[in-house]
């Protein structure tokens, strides 16, 4: 069995696959770790169970997961030895990791060194790996990085026009996120179009509470919207997206705010929530906009405008557009947002069929109009499946393959990356 772990600051998500990855045997989430009202949602097939219980720490969360996986009621696994490989999600690989890797001491050391790049995420990912090593001694662990897919972005796109030494000495550059999702979705889109991915120029719109826009040309990321941190690019649920950094200086110097206050505004009080004054949930914002709430309508308009503008920019960067792909919570579920984004993109060959757009989630991914020159697809993301695929490939690889995607290669810094 292949176990996939996504360890967050207060949650543990897991999926258990058959060795051939053909079936998800069990899945679940343990939430509110370290809080009084912890709980587990555990699913086996169509059966589900919700149970509230205190989960004081991540070690207790792993024990709870194993209790449910080994429960006689479900008969999922007999003992920990039934787990033959474990895959983990890590948000940020810095300039060290170019792809997924088998975990060894050198990898763990590098992971700790990358922790400061994503202080809200990476330390939790490390805890997940350490707990898995403790609970499943001798079982190989693989770590898959959200940033790795974007390591192919050339210097002209990943470099900021700041002093060159900041990139060379401190790794200040555009890293990008949601790469595991974008990698899975772009390959799936090529399969649906029955075309080799090497022949396609596509824009992947990962639209959820977090948003990544990605230009994928020939199967490689060549530009992406989120940069060094996780609040740049398109406005998100609570994150600001791109804005003039002079605003930060103004708020600190002229308005007397602390950097901590400005950071909280950028990450937690902006985006859909900040504009609408109502919610970070697009469903609630859209419903209120439809009822005449002007601020919510503004939030929708700003969100859609920045997505559409980015699509146009990426089409220009790639020299054309073969496919536009929507994924993640909003991208997969909001026919309204998809329709609004596609309005006015006819010059790129994007035209959608309104009826197909409405039924896209019912197994009809292609929402293109017959006259469209560029395909428009709705492709459900599956980051866990992508992690599982990498886990199987690396654990079946020859000895010595563990660190082939790790190291300070010239392409990670500066002009050499172009």
From TrEMBL:
<keyword id="KW-0479">Metal-binding</keyword>
<feature type="binding site">
    <location>
        <begin position="329"/>
        <end position="333"/>
    </location>
    <ligand>
        <name>ATP</name>
    </ligand>
</feature>
<keyword id="KW-0547">Nucleotide-binding</keyword>
<dbReference type="GO" id="GO:0006085">
    <property type="term" value="P:acetyl-CoA biosynthetic process"/>
</dbReference>
<feature type="binding site">
    <location>
        <begin position="206"/>
        <end position="210"/>
    </location>
    <ligand>
        <name>ATP</name>
    </ligand>
</feature>
<comment type="function">
    <text>Catalyzes the formation of acetyl phosphate from acetate and ATP. Can also catalyze the reverse reaction.</text>
</comment>
<dbReference type="GO" id="GO:0005737">
    <property type="term" value="C:cytoplasm"/>
</dbReference>
<feature type="active site" description="Proton donor/acceptor">
    <location>
        <position position="146"/>
    </location>
</feature>
<dbReference type="GO" id="GO:0005524">
    <property type="term" value="F:ATP binding"/>
</dbReference>
<comment type="similarity">
    <text>Belongs to the acetokinase family.</text>
</comment>
<dbReference type="GO" id="GO:0000287">
    <property type="term" value="F:magnesium ion binding"/>
</dbReference>
<dbReference type="InterPro" id="IPR043129">
    <property type="entry name" value="ATPase_NBD"/>
</dbReference>
<comment type="pathway">
    <text>Metabolic intermediate biosynthesis; acetyl-CoA biosynthesis; acetyl-CoA from acetate: step 1/2.</text>
</comment>
<feature type="site" description="Transition state stabilizer">
    <location>
        <position position="239"/>
    </location>
</feature>
<feature type="binding site">
    <location>
        <position position="89"/>
    </location>
    <ligand>
        <name>substrate</name>
    </ligand>
</feature>
<keyword id="KW-0067">ATP-binding</keyword>
<feature type="binding site">
    <location>
        <position position="383"/>
    </location>
    <ligand>
        <name>Mg(2+)</name>
    </ligand>
</feature>
<dbReference type="InterPro" id="IPR023865">
    <property type="entry name" value="Aliphatic_acid_kinase_CS"/>
</dbReference>
<keyword id="KW-0963">Cytoplasm</keyword>
<feature type="site" description="Transition state stabilizer">
    <location>
        <position position="178"/>
    </location>
</feature>
<keyword id="KW-0418">Kinase</keyword>
<comment type="subunit">
    <text>Homodimer.</text>
</comment>
<dbReference type="InterPro" id="IPR000890">
    <property type="entry name" value="Aliphatic_acid_kin_short-chain"/>
</dbReference>
<feature type="binding site">
    <location>
        <position position="6"/>
    </location>
    <ligand>
        <name>Mg(2+)</name>
    </ligand>
</feature>
<dbReference type="Pfam" id="PF00871">
    <property type="entry name" value="Acetate_kinase"/>
</dbReference>
<keyword id="KW-0460">Magnesium</keyword>
<dbReference type="GO" id="GO:0006083">
    <property type="term" value="P:acetate metabolic process"/>
</dbReference>
<keyword id="KW-0808">Transferase</keyword>
<feature type="binding site">
    <location>
        <position position="13"/>
    </location>
    <ligand>
        <name>ATP</name>
    </ligand>
</feature>
<feature type="binding site">
    <location>
        <begin position="281"/>
        <end position="283"/>
    </location>
    <ligand>
        <name>ATP</name>
    </ligand>
</feature>
<protein>
    <recommendedName>
        <fullName>Acetate kinase</fullName>
        <ecNumber>2.7.2.1</ecNumber>
    </recommendedName>
</protein>
<dbReference type="InterPro" id="IPR004372">
    <property type="entry name" value="Ac/propionate_kinase"/>
</dbReference>
<dbReference type="GO" id="GO:0008776">
    <property type="term" value="F:acetate kinase activity"/>
</dbReference>
């Amino acid at each position: 069995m292949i176990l996939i772990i996504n360890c967050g600051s207060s949650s543990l998500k897991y999926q258990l696959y058959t060795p051939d990855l053909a079936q998800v045997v069990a899945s679940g989430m343990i939430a509110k770790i370290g809080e009084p009202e912890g709980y587990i949602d555990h699913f086996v097939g169509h059966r589900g169970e919700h149970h509230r219980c205190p989960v004081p720490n991540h070690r207790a969360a792993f024990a709870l997961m194993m209790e449910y996986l080994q429960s006689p009621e479900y008969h999922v696994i007999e003992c920990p030895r039934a787990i033959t490989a474990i895959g983990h999600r890590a948000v940020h690989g810095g300039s060290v990791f170019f792809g997924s890797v088998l975990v060894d001491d050198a990898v763990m050391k590098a992971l700790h060194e990358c922790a400061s790049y994503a202080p809200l995420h990476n330390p939790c990912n490390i805890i997940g790996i350490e707990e898995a090593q403790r609970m499943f001694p001798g079982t190989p662990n693989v770590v898959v990085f959200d940033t790795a897919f974007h390591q192919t972005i050339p210097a002209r796109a990943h470099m900021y026009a700041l002093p060159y030494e900041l990139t060379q000495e401190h790794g200040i550059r555009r890293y990008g996120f949601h790469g595991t999702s974008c990698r899975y979705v772009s390959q799936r889109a090529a399969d649906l179009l029955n075309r080799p991915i090497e022949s396609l120029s596509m824009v992947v719109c990962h639209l959820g509470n977090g948003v990544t826009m990605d230009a994928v040309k020939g199967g490689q990321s060549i530009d992406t919207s989120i940069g060094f941190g996780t609040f740049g690019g398109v406005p998100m649920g609570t994150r600001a997206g791109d804005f003039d950094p002079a605003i930060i200086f103004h708020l600190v110097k002229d308005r007397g705010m602390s950097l901590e206050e400005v950071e909280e505004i950028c990450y937690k009080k902006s985006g859909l929530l900040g504009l609408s004054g109502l919610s970070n949930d697009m469903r609630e914002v859209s419903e209120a906009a439809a009822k005449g709430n002007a601020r919510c309508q503004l939030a929708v308009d700003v969100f859609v405008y920045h997505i559409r503008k980015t699509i146009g920019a990426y089409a220009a960067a790639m020299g054309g557009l073969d496919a536009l792909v929507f994924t993640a919570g909003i991208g997969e579920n909001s026919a309204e947002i998809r329709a609004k984004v596609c309005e006015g993109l006819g010059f790129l060959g994007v035209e959608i069929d309104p009826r197909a757009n409405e039924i896209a989630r019912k197994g009809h991914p292609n929402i293109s109009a017959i006259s469209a020159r560029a395909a428009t697809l709705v492709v459900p993301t599956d980051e866990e499946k992508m992690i599982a695929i990498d886990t199987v490939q690396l654990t079946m690889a020859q000895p010595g393959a563990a660190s082939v995607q790790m190291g300070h290669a010239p392409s990670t810094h500066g002009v050499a990356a172009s």
